[in-house]
Amino acid sequence: MNNNSYDNLSSRQNRQKIRQAARQAFPPTIPIFAGFWFLGITYGVYMNVSGFNFLYPLFMSMAIFGGSLEFVAVEMLLSAFAPVQTLIMALMIQARHLFYGIAMLDKFKGTGLKKIYLIFGMCDESFSINCSAQIPEDVDRGWFMFFVTLYDQIYWVTGAALGGVLGSLISFNTEGLDFVMTAMFVVIFLEQWLKEKKHYTAVIGVLASVVCLLICGPDSFLIPTMVCILLLLTLFRKPIEKAGDMI
Amino acid sequence: MTLTQQVITIALCALGTMATRFLPFLLFSSRKPTPGYIQYLGKALPAAIFGMLVVYCLKNVSFLSGSHGLPELAAILVVVGLHLWKHQMLWSIAGGTVCYMLLVQFIF
Asked: End of a domain among A177, A206, A235?
């Protein structure tokens, strides 16, 4: 065999590997499709009725790709220009991604250039799937995570643009559909719970969040929660490592 | 706001987001071994984060007024029940969501 046909063979295998990952990555994102179209369309409609054309939600959902901040950004765009405050708000609302990054440091290793996109597109939902999915042995992990992230962003961007185009023309009785995201996080939490023998870290996460929510209220409890989780995990490192209950 | 100010505002939102997403990867390069404490956090955090995200989704539920969080509680029980029974992620999520939609649209 000459070099050329080797190249053909390996590029064919490579294409097959990518196609397989693209197929395998789709089913876990189906709930996200439902949730993101609902929330994305809602967001697009919100921008539309706030007086922005569909290009705004289109580009904002592409560049920011983080639902909660994008909703807040609408209010920022409607108020006076305040760049420093905008950056601080963005950092505070998105601070939880710091945890996602720490959790994915090892999982993103060896994914080549795809790593840049994996980090760029690491929203709550993509992180949760990529962190918890049982990827079959024969599927390329890097491409699997790449497609999960890509599908999620496509759902979000198309939803936001669609909402921005249609605006208030659409009215549909989908009240409660946003629960699909809650349901997904409950399932992922439950799966994690069933894997553990002791539940130190899961209990720490829930307790810290509930206590901080009760004290600080729904708009500012995330950062105190993160600080509490960090302190408790550090304080109880010995028993947690001894229980060995970690991914 | 002028168009330039709008573009800057959106860019700053993107910058803030990307800073929080990229920072851990910039601090702990994949070429050098990750410190033990950070490795420990990386393994211990996911379960805590998933717990935090569940609470985050429910942060605006009021247990003292309105429907007292009953539709949320019932739907979560359906999700957990379905999942323990069938172990099919998509069915657990779909079942719980449909149950929640029926509850908030027709009962509460």
From this structure: A177
